Amino acid sequence: MPDGTVARALDELGPVQDHFGHPLPVERQLLDDRGRAEPWRDVLVLLTGGLRARRAETGTHPTDRRSAAVRRAFLGDRKEFLDPRWTAGLLREYELRPARDLASRLVDDMLAQSRRVALRKLRVDPRTGGYRLFSRLHLRDDDRYYRLGEESKAEIGLRVHPLASVARQLGLLTADTARGGALTLTDHARTSLDVMP
């Protein structure tokens, strides 16, 4: 992690948007920059979305109809862990603090998220009556986390919920209240996908 504050490290990035509010390819430049230490480079990629979200929240982003739709697709409908709005809040909290403090907070948050996901997958083993916890990361009695096994390099499977969330943000799906909130194609989606009603 670099010495100095988060703000000083972010100043080195330069602008993340042009004067029209369009994103500059900062993430691509960061990922191509092999001279930066890898963990911090990945943190900067994450924080870039937070910088753009903060600009959208402060009203310094274009306000035409198309920009509003792009902003909604970028920011999403609700605050999610590690999304641009969450990251913008993290920037507000840590901007004037040392970068090492932010890194420590991110590690704590990622470990807590890993634990939440593992607990959601908790199942009762019908053979033994005990619990099965599907996780490679475990918290032991000494308050330390231990990794059991390596992560697979296989492709990540696409799940329906994230796909539906992205489709809603892009205006392709909408919740039909007459059908109990079931997702249906919007007119925009029907036209774009050339689907008959």
Overview of this protein structure:
The chain is 48% helix and 9% strand. The chain is mainly α. Strand 3 and strand 4 (145-147) form a beta hairpin. The termini are far apart. The mean pLDDT is 78. Helix 2 runs antiparallel to helix 3 and helix 3 (38-57) packs across helix 5 (84-94). The chain is flat and about 55 Å long. The chain has a two-stranded antiparallel ribbon with strand order 1-2. Strands 3-4 form a two-stranded antiparallel ribbon. The protein is built from 8 helices and 6 strands. The protein has helices at residues 6-11, 26-32, 38-57, 65-75, 84-94, 99-120, 160-169, 187-193, and strands at 123-124, 131-132, 137-139, 145-147, 173-176, 182-185.
From the alpha carbons, calculate the radius of gyration and give it in angstroms.
21 Å
Order of SSEs, N→C?
HHHHHHEEEEHEEH
Distance between the termini: 54 Å
Average of pLDDT: 78
Could you name the ranges where pLDDT drops below 50 across 5 or more consecutive residues?
none
Number of distinct helices: 8
Strand content: 5-15%
Strand order of the largest sheet: 1-2
Helix proportion: 40-55%
Biggest sheet record:
2 strands, antiparallel
SS class: mainly alpha
Q: What is the number of strand segments?
A: 6
Question: What gross morphology would you assign?
Answer: flat
Secondary-structure map with pairings?
Elements: H1 6-11, H2 26-32, H3 38-57, H4 65-75, H5 84-94, H6 99-120, E1 123-124, E2 131-132, E3 137-139, E4 145-147, H7 160-169, E5 173-176, E6 182-185, H8 187-193
Antiparallel strand pairs: 1-2, 3-4, 5-6
Helix pairs in contact: 2-3, 3-5
